[in-house]
Design brief:
about 0% strand; single chain; 2 strands; Growth Hormone, Chain: A; mainly alpha; 21 helices; two-stranded antiparallel ribbon
Length: about 450
């Protein structure tokens, strides 16, 4: 029996079914989730909180890596579970609920016990953030599959741009609240951070409700289940025989992990540049404004010129962001000789780094996802999503490697290495072909694909 044959063909729904509903509901869900994270932003607020509990930078890398592992490890198993199932919605609803329960427990612990035992708080926090990521990893295939099935390719740039713009607008407002809570004369430590984590929990709850409102159109699926072994056996043939997929994997490996390095710029700002703690709110604004303005460009490029153009823009910004982290302070201190007081503007000038970083993450995410959607058929999509997660797993270790290197090398040297990795992603993105689902796909059996 052919792996690529389909089942339940009579149940396949119209291509436009649920498009408007899911467009609105999924944008709202993502907005509450991502702006919820901004209350304890992993790029700025969370490093500051951890810095008050431990001087180690490695724990920041550990959280970042566990977040990425939680996203990237489950899909290989979920592809085997979902490949032959026409209904994937239950595998969206339950993981989003169960994965966030540890974080709700963490918030309850803070209200009950505070920071009486910092070691327990740190590891409770690590588990809570990993739980969120693991839940997202378990639901990732279902979430992406429902988007690909219900949002036509001609609308995906607009869809992701609307999502990123809405996220940015909501997070911009959150930035004001964070600045007020952490500012002088406002709630004392640790009540200030407890309030931020509580607000995050509220937003995550609304996100869960929205996830349960998503509707699922039915599309062709595989006729028989795939095992994890089947998927793994087809991994190298797929990488070897699909240049488009191979290019996407290498660009993501070099660029995506580096785009998650914003927390280290906050550590650099606090520990080396002596920038005040309450600038975290400003940097959240910079991240969100950068993401919002860039989302308009990325959406336009995606719908007019395809996801390759978005990935190329992302590669350029992955290179530019660490370069800015080096050049902006150097320029500010050099200008001090000509313009006395110029160095005093450094905290605000350094926001350029977070502005570029916010634009980078949106480009790499939108470009990678849309490129993957276009090169895989409905039947193959779960397998391709899983293999993409598997092959980009080494890139997820980038934050941990950065945290380790910072124990031995100065920040500017590590930033140069990060820029070099981004440059590699940029060069490779120019060699990526136009994705096509009609291109031959390595099969795990000998039957020809259906015509």
């Amino acid at each position: 029996m052919n792996l690529h044959s389909t089942r339940n063909a009579a149940q396949v729904t119209d291509s436009s079914e649920h498009t408007r509903w899911n467009f609105a509901v999924i944008v709202a869900e993502a907005t509450f989730f991502m702006s919820g994270l901004a209350w304890a932003d992993p790029s700025s607020v969370l490093p500051q909180f951890l810095g008050l509990l431990t001087p180690s930078t490695v724990i920041i890398g550990v959280i970042a890596v566990l977040q990425r592992l939680g996203w990237l490890l489950p899909p290989i198993f979920m592809a085997a579970v979902l490949g032959h199932r026409p209904h994937r919605l239950p595998w969206l609803r339950w993981p989003v609920l169960l994965g966030r329960l540890p974080f709700f427990a963490f918030v309850a612990y803070l209200w009950l016990h505070g920071l009486d035992n910092p070691r327990v708080v740190i590891w409770f926090l690590v588990i809570a953030y990993f739980g969120i990521s693991l839940g997202n990893g378990l639901l990732g295939i279902s979430w992406q599959d429902i988007i690909a099935k219900s949002i036509p390719s001609r609308l995906r740039g607009r869809f992701f741009a609307s999502m990123q713009f809405a996220i940015a607008g909501a997070a911009f407002g959150v930035g004001f609240a964070v600045r007020w809570v952490l500012g002088p004369g406002h709630p004392y430590f640790p009540l200030d951070y407890t309030l931020l984590f509580t607000a995050m929990a509220l937003f995550l709850t609304i996100s869960i409700v929205a996830c349960w409102m998503v509707r699922e159109p039915i599309r062709p699926v595989l006729d028989r289940p795939q095992s994890v072994r089947d998927i793994l056996l087809g991994a190298l043939p797929t990488l070897r025989e699909r240049p488009a997929f191979r290019g996407l994997v290498f660009v993501a490996a070099l660029g995506f992990g580096i785009s998650f390095s914003l927390p280290f710029y906050m550590v650099y700002a606090r520990q080396v540049l002596n920038i005040a703690e309450d600038m975290a709110g400003i940097y959240i604004w910079a991240i969100t404004i950068g993401g919002a303005l860039a989302s308009i460009l990325w959406g336009y490029l995606n719908d007019r010129r395809g996801p390759r153009a978005v990935l190329r823009g992302g590669g350029a910004l992955v290179t530019a962001t660490p370069a800015l982290a080096i050049c902006v302070p150097a320029a500010a201190f050099a200008a001090e000789d000509l313009l006395p007081g110029a160095a005093g503007a450094l905290p605000y000038l350094f926001a350029l780094v977070f502005f570029a970083g916010g634009a980078t993450m949106g480009a790499m995410w939108m470009g990678s996802m849309n490129y993957l959607f276009e090169l895989a058929t409905h039947q193959d999509r779960p397998r391709y999503i899983a293999l993409f997660s598997l092959f980009t797993l080494p890139g997820a270790l980038a934050p941990l490697l950065i945290g380790f290197l910072l124990n031995y090398l100065p920040f500017p040297v590590v930033f140069l290495l990060m820029a070099a990795s981004g440059g590699g992603a940029l060069l490779l993105s120019w060699r990526m072909p136009i994705p096509s689902p009609q291109a031959p796909t390595p099969s795990l059996d000998t039957d020809p694909p259906p015509q």
